Every structure is written in C-alpha cells, then in structure tokens.
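Regression test case RT-17, inverse folding.

Input:
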C-alpha cells in the first residue's frame, strides 16, 4: 500500500514526517513524502520517496509577506490571520497543481494543516483513503489542557468546546484558497465551511505529541490518536565542529537561544538582546542563527553562534532552552529533560508556551513583541536556579523518552487502513 505524506512547511514541519515515513516503510508500506524542493536531497537520503512542491518555503519566508507573517503578527491575532491568508493565497495555485499531479499515484493520503480539506476532496474524487497527521491539537474539546485556543485553559468547559469550532471556522477563511484552487481544477463548487469542518473533525487523525503534554480528552473519540512525538534522530556518528566541542568543554552547560524558522527584520538587535540577557543572568549561551539570520560581529567569549547541531544531540548538553515554540523544538527540549522558555511568534506557539509553564517545566512565556532584556534574563534565571523545575523537567523527559510515538502512529494507521472505510 502506497502512502503519500504531505509535508508542506519548514524543516520543523517536515522532519517528524520523515521519522513517521521511515516507521511506515519498516512496517511494509511504500511511502512518498511531498515537500519543498529544498528538502529533496535529504528525504531521498533517508530512503523515502520524494515528490516536490514547487515552492521553496525557506525562500518564501524571507519575502516581505513571510517576514510580516512570522515576525510581526504576535501582537495582533487578527493581523496574524490576515498575514497567514496572504501567504496561503499566494501559494494556493502552486499547491493545487502539485497535489493534483501527485494524488493518483498513492492509495492513502496523510495530510497536514494546509492540505486537510484539499486532500479530503481528492480522496473522495479518486476513491482514496485519507488520514490527517498533526503536530498540534486543533480539534475542539472541553479540555483547556488539550485546547490550543481554549478560552478557559485551566478548566474543562463547554465554552472551550464551542470556541474550538469558532477557531476552525476562522481557519476556513484563512485556508480555503488551496481548497478552492483544487476544486476549480476538478470542476467542483468551492469548499463550504461544512466541507472544511467535516474534513477536520471526521477524518482519522494521528497527533504526533506526547499524551504527557497533551492529555487526550474523552470528547475527542477514537478517531483521534495522541501517539507521542515522531522524533527524527541524528546519525549516531554525528560529530560537532571542533569549535562547538571546544566551547562546550570550556565551562558549565550553556543556555540555548534560537527562534528556528521565524523571520526577523532586525536580527542584529535580537542578537544583542540575547547577549545582554545572558550577561545579566550570568550564563554562557549558544545562539542559533536559523532562518532569522541572527548574527553578531563581535561576540563575547561566553557566547557561541551556532549554524547547526541536531536538537537530540545538543539539547541534553544545555542548562536550558529558549526558543520560539515550534512543536518539534518543544518536543525535543522536553525529551532532553531541560527547562524551556518559549518566546511565541504565531500559530500554535503560544499554546506550547502555556503548556510548558502549566506543567512546571519552564519559565513563563513572553510573546516576541513583548520580549525585553529584563524579561529574558528573568526567565533564564528561573530556569537555571529552580531545583524543583529541573526535577520536574527531568522526570517528564524520562517519560517522553519511554514513549514510541512512531510505533504507536503506525499501529493506528494499520488499524484504520485494515477497515473497509474511514
């Protein structure tokens, strides 16, 4: 059976699917991963089939539209949705052409956030099976802990459940561009809100996060499986650069700071803020440049500017981790058993910041637009000085390391695909 996985997004969106795809291939499935052109060499090297979306996401995020969405939306949720819609509409035609071109080659589609409704439409037209693979909890629920946009995050309440549908309805307005482009090419009427909600809430779904972090609520039902994280590990023989190895050996474990794929209009100022916060907190630091292009012409000896190191290798060697709150980075920090501080920019990132703090395994989140030297320094102090926080984080990390997220997801897919219909 041939499974087509849709990996549209940054490396953080694609990497868990590589791990899941390899698990599915070990279980006997044929797997093709559709992702941006810039990921093709890596995906093929991992032994998976590859087909390209003809959009370079990394390059797109460096355009004015990408920078506005990723770097300047956190202070205004309405603006964030507007910017996301601009981005989605800008790539909708290309996405539609690509998914239609590749859809008939597979028996099963596993879609992500951007393509849930388009792939549901293609599955219906071509008589295929459809499964949703998510890295954050989008499904409506009474549970504040599992509700990404819960109005009452510390309670179980019908208000949370209703608000979940409001959020999905808002997402329909943002994400309908690719759906309607696909439907237009198939001579179908535009997607309705009901079509969108049906695809999101009735399709079998694997959620690649730990149930210790997102406790599965009873009102999700059996069609949603919280499997554990889909971790992609570095090659066992991976070695750091001599400069990185020397920096780590020179003193106490440093604090990692990096915002991943989040674009940044003033990377020099951001770097300076990080350096000053490290100085005020009395900590050494590793600053990851990332897509934001962070750089500093004159770094103090207590700070190392990192181009790349795999999270599963690096994070266990850190005293704490400050990051943007991407689902994959959040999971990697939790598995490492070190405290986190999340500086959310957009999307699901505020939710992960909230959950980290609620679980007592990290400092209180600070939105990117509100971040100051003092707030960052205070967060670093909290993470590096609290024995109780470090103890809780170590225990949670041990629990997450004991999970088999890929294996659980593969078993869920086996169960669904062995039935006659979804």
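Golden output:
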């Amino acid at each position: 059976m041939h499974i087509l996985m849709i990996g549209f997004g940054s490396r953080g969106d694609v990497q868990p699917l590589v791990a899941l795809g390899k698990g599915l291939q070990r279980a006997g499935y044929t797997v093709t991963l559709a992702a941006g052109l810039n990921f093709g060499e890596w995906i093929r090297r991992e032994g998976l089939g590859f087909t390209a979306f003809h959009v370079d996401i990394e390059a797109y995020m460096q355009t004015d539209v990408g920078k506005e969405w990723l770097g300047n939306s956190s202070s205004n949720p309405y603006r964030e949705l507007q910017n996301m819609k601009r981005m989605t509409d800008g790539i909708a035609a290309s996405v539609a052409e690509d998914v239609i071109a590749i859809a008939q080659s597979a028996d099963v589609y596993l879609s992500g956030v951007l393509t849930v409704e388009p792939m549901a439409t293609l599955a219906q037209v071509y008589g295929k099976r459809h499964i949703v693979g998510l890295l954050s909890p989008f499904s409506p629920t009474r549970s504040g802990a599992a509700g990404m946009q819960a109005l009452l995050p510390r309670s179980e309440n019908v208000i949370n459940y209703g608000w979940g549908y409001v959020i999905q309805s808002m997402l329909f307005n943002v994400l309908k561009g690719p759906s309607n482009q696909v439907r237009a090419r198939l001579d179908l009427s535009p997607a309705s809100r009901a079509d969108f909600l049906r695809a999101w809430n009735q399709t079998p779904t694997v959620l690649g996060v730990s149930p210790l972090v997102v406790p599965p609520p009873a009102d999700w039902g059996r069609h949603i499986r919280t499997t554990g994280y889909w971790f992609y590990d570095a090659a066992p023989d991976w070695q750091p650069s001599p400069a990185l190895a020397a920096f780590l050996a020179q003193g106490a474990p440093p604090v990692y700071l990096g915002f991943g794929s989040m674009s940044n209009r003033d990377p020099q100022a951001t770097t300076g803020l990080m350096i000053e916060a490290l100085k005020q907190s009395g900590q050494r630091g590793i600053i990851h440049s990332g897509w934001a292009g962070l750089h500093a012409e004159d770094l103090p000896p207590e700070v190392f500017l990192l181009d790349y190191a795999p999270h599963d290798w690096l994070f266990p060697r850190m005293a704490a981790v400050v990051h943007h709150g991407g689902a994959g980075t959040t999971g990697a920090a939790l598995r490492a058993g070190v405290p986190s501080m999340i500086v959310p920019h957009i999307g699901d990132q505020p939710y992960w910041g909230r959950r980290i703090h609620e679980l007592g395994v990290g400092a209180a989140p600070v939105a990117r637009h509100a971040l100051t030297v003092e707030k960052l320094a205070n967060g670093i102090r909290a993470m590096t000085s609290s024995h109780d926080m470090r103890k809780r984080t170590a225990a949670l990390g041990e629990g997450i390391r004991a999970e088999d997220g890929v294996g659980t997801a593969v078993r869920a897919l086996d169960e669904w695909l062995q039935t006659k219909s979804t």
